[in-house]
Amino acid sequence: MTVSKDAMGMITIQLNEKDVPSAENKPQGPSNAKRVSALLLWFTFNALTLLLNKFLFAKLQFSYPFALTAVHMATCSFFAFLIIKVFKWIPFQQQSRSDIIRHILPLAVIFCVNIVLGNVSLRFIPISFMQTVKSSVPVFTVIIQTLFLRKTFEQRVYLALIPVVGGVALASFTESSFDMTGFLCAVFASITTAVQAVMMNLLLASGMKKMDPINLLFYMGPLSFAMLVPAVFMFEWQSISTEWIYFGQPAPLLWLFVGGAVAFALNYSSFVVSSVVSTLTMTVSGNLKAVINIVVSVAIFGNPIGLMNWIGCLVAIGGVMWYQHIMMNPRPVEPVLPIRAVASPKNAGFVLASERRKSTPGLSALHRGSPRAPGLNLITADSPNPTYKGAHQA
After folding, report:
1. Highest mean pLDDT among 82-86, 312-316, 370-374
2. E-state strands within 185-338
3. Which among 243, 320, 344, 371 counts the fewest CB atoms within 10 Å?
């Protein structure tokens, strides 16, 4: 690079060939093979987590959701400690005690309740039906933000939720293995998933440091385990020790810890996938993952699923895809007109004038300034919210 200055003071910068990066020298992103491998592992561990949990409930008769979740949390905490502290494959994200109490503890509570409800629903209903009901998460996300955060959305967002609700309703009414307890637990699991997503956004907006899934699990796992242990001893331990036919046998206990290891592998694969693929790819893959889980569970457990069930499932998932497409491609917001201050010849104050007021319709005349700032006048729009057409704070 050569820099020169002429007699007029003009500076000229001349770049040489070595200063311009060539295509060969540009950093390469992850290869397609790595992306596909990461997605396949994510699909595999997600399906295995659901199948192993259902296997424990249906085949090993381990119908104790608190204990199952506690084993998973203990196992995930152990592996997260190994990954972060021992092998140091992922940088440790230090959190203060106040951040743990104010930010991570509320998430751990919701996270724990969500997993317990999901495990309870798996005890009573097939995986295919539970996955269909869980597709209602966007509906509850919109409802929570509308009712409690005073947030409004585009009309097409509400329209996209219609097939989600309709598909879940159709699948529910035609489900041959319908169980009210399992259905309600799946619905409440969807609600807690929506609450967790909204809470995460609020905590990030309030100053919480963004954390990867493994560091978050490093903190939330022990907290969730500590909350679950009293529930296990209060509601399940006596039944486990006296009624579970496999109590004390090593093989069934090994399956419990294998399930916890697979659950951790699911979280780790989620972390890897999010680092090598785009948000759009992960969103579309998440919908494909739900379909794969349904097909695999039907093939393995053989639960009956009729034509109307398939239609309801596909309609609900299609509605979720439409909703996600809208949220990732919002309509452009009209820009707010720039404002500049100009001196007023009539008084010692200022008049705020739009740069384009002569060519922009819809602006009112200059209004009188407030009594606390005499001589200050503002150009305001006729509507209190004239330019925002997307999701916004009301």
Report:
1. 82-86
2. none
3. 371
Q: How many CB atoms lie under 10 A from the CB of residue 134?
A: 20
Q: Other CB atoms closer than 10 Å to residue 188's CB: what's the count? A: 17
| Closest-CA residue to 142 (of 205, 201, 195, 202) | 195
Angle at 202 between CA 269 and CA 131, to 5 degrees: 45
Cβ pair 347, 188 in contact under 8 A: no
Amino acid code (one letter) for 157: V
Token output for 59: 């085949």
Helices (H) and strands (E) in the chain, counts: 13, 6
Nearest to 145 by CA among 187, 194, 100: 194
d(Cα 269, Cα 44) in Å, to the nearest integer? Answer: 10
Those residues with Cβ within 8 angstroms of residue 184's Cβ, 6 or more apart along the chain or in another chain: none
Spatial distance between the Cα atoms of 71 and 253, rounded to a whole number of angstroms: 10
- The Cβ-side half-sphere exposure at 174, using a 13 Å CA radius, reads 18
Q: Is 174 helix (H, G, I), strand (E, B) or coil?
A: coil
The token duo for 232 is 């296990």
Q: What are phi and psi of 344, to 5 degrees?
A: -95, 125
Report the C-alpha gap between 132 and 189 in whole angstroms: 12
CA 365 to chain centre: 45
Distance CA 168, CA 173 (A): 9
pLDDT in tens, 306-364: 888 889 988 998 888 888 888 888 877 655 555 554 444 544 444 444 444 444 444 34
Which residues partner with 13 through β-bridges?
A: 3
